[in-house]
Amino acid sequence: MIHLTRRRARVAAAAAAALVLTAQAPRPAPPAPVEMWVPKKTPFAAYDSPNRPWWKLADVLALHRGASDWSQPIVRNRDLVADWHQQGAGKRTTEMAYSDNRTAIIVWSGQLRVAIAGQPSFVASKGFEVDVPLRVPFTLETVGDQPALWFEIHAATDMRLYPVASTTERPRDVAGFHYERRLASGGAGTPDEINPLYLDYYKDVVQGGARATAFVATQHLFVNNIRGRATPTPPSSNLGHFHVGYDEFWFVMEGNVDLQIEGEPLIKAAAPGDVLTAKQGRWHRASFGGPAGQMGTRVAVNPYPMGLHGYSVESRGRQ
Fold this sequence. Notes:
Elements: H1 2-24, E1 54-55, H2 57-63, E2 70-76, E3 80-87, E4 97-98, E5 103-109, E6 111-116, E7 122-124, E8 128-132, E9 138-143, E10 148-155, E11 160-161, E12 198-200, H3 201-207, E13 214-218, E14 221-229, E15 241-242, E16 248-254, E17 256-261, E18 267-270, E19 275-278, E20 284-289, E21 295-302, E22 310-311
Antiparallel strand pairs: 1-19, 2-3, 3-10, 4-11, 5-8, 5-10, 6-7, 6-9, 8-12, 13-14, 14-21, 15-22, 16-19, 16-21, 17-18, 17-20
């Protein structure tokens, strides 16, 4: 038994080292598209609640006008969940971790002191993107005299874990699950060159001129900053692309975004804080709107860094 335990430990350590090396290696340029028969979902995947093609931040705030603490579900699909959260001044979330995947957070107003176990705490304000490694306990504390508002993204299969050291009572059960005191194995995630702990997007990219790149790139969660200048909205004949097996959504970080989704009215000038979703298998084409030359950023979120994009054959060479 001791020999088997040691062997498992060596295998786990070797696997962890391989993952770190893979994460730090430069990502190769994507290969040229190959013409294939690609399955396209039919009929359309429906927008079941709470999913919408366009969740306006103004509408979310109106739903909770006058409340200090609230949460609003925005995205629910097979792979990912995402919600708006607001927390009043001086309040702090319960310390928790998530079972198997990273947590991505975009802070939108107020200030949050982010305390991630094993890392120096930091205060995040509007435009901060935060990446909490898997199985690492963390808390979010509102500092200052204003509520803090943030957008939080998880893998749909992840479950909350609560450290026994900071939890005085057994957590309340959730539907289909009963909390038990157990040893949690498998190790914890760490920040790395591809998945940093945080990015002050407005300071580092908008003001500092750093290149907008993927912020989280790991299997089951891809959070990709895409930045560019406003251009005339392409014609409807430009279909864009579709994804075979998953939904994709975008958080508007800067400027405006136009989005054409198959079967839906054209979305024009989505504003910062808005969230747009293209359901699985639907053609979609995003572009930056607003005054000519205005810079825009959309944060594209889906479960696969190397997800398949299906383009029309006629668009060959224009991807």
